[in-house]
UniProtKB/TrEMBL annotation:
This is NADH-quinone oxidoreductase subunit I. NDH-1 is composed of 14 different subunits. Subunits NuoA, H, J, K, L, M, N constitute the membrane sector of the complex. It holds the Pfam family Fer4_7. Residues 37-66, 79-108 form the 4Fe-4S ferredoxin-type domain. It is found in: Cell membrane. It catalyses: a quinone + NADH + 5 H(+)(in) = a quinol + NAD(+) + 4 H(+)(out). Belongs to the complex I 23 kDa subunit family. Its cofactor is [4Fe-4S] cluster. NDH-1 shuttles electrons from NADH, via FMN and iron-sulfur (Fe-S) centers, to quinones in the respiratory chain. The immediate electron acceptor for the enzyme in this species is believed to be ubiquinone. Couples the redox reaction to proton translocation (for every two electrons transferred, four hydrogen ions are translocated across the cytoplasmic membrane), and thus conserves the redox energy in a proton gradient. InterPro entries: 4Fe4S_Fe-S-bd, 4Fe4S_Fe_S_CS, NADH_quinone_OxRdtase_chainI. Binds 2 [4Fe-4S] clusters per subunit. [4Fe-4S] cluster 1 binds at C46, C49, C52, C98. The gene is nuoI.
């Protein structure tokens, strides 16, 4: 009997307290600034150096470059950039190694899907994934 009263007392005491849980997904969850979420890609910053693909421990980055449209410019520009999120472990190494910050982590973590094919993300998708993009130089 004493146990029931104690339990009821605890419940009543906590009824008026502020909730610590979220009604996810109806209410978005704020992730901390250093959260390592799905990458955002800036094609215009990419110099096609291949360092991100080389350092990736799971080999999930595929990229190709093409010659610059200006024949006097010997630099390559990015043509295709794909990440396979079936095997990406969001380790952050690709963004750490990128010399131009063409690839950066974001706060977006929502990748659930009914099809594995949806987990292959291309340049366009990664560029449009701007949800709370975390750039190294951001104040
Ligand atoms: S976060 Fe890690 S596993 Fe994912 S693409 Fe970058 S280096 Fe590869
Ligand atoms: S994203 Fe960065 S590391 Fe990867 S190829 Fe482009 S410039 Fe190089």
């Amino acid at each position: 009997m004493l146990g029931i009263v104690k339990g009821l007392g605890f419940t009543l005491k906590n009824l008026a307290k502020k909730k610590v849980t979220y009604s996810y997904p109806d209410q978005p969850v704020e992730m901390p600034d250093r959260f390592r979420g799905i990458q955002h890609f800036y094609p215009e910053k990419c110099i096609v150096c291949n360092q991100c693909a080389a350092i990736c421990p799971t080999d999930c980055i595929q990229l190709t470059g093409k010659p610059h449209p200006d024949p006097n410019n010997k630099k390559k520009i990015i043509d295709t950039y794909d990440i396979n999120f079936e095997i990406c472990i969001l380790c952050d190494l690709c963004t750490e190694v990128c010399p131009t910050e063409a690839i950066v982590m974001s706060n977006n973590f929502e990748l659930s899907s009914y099809s594995r094919d949806d987990l292959f993300k291309d340049l366009q998708w990664l560029h449009e994934n701007t949800d709370s993009t975390r750039e190294v130089n951001k104040p």
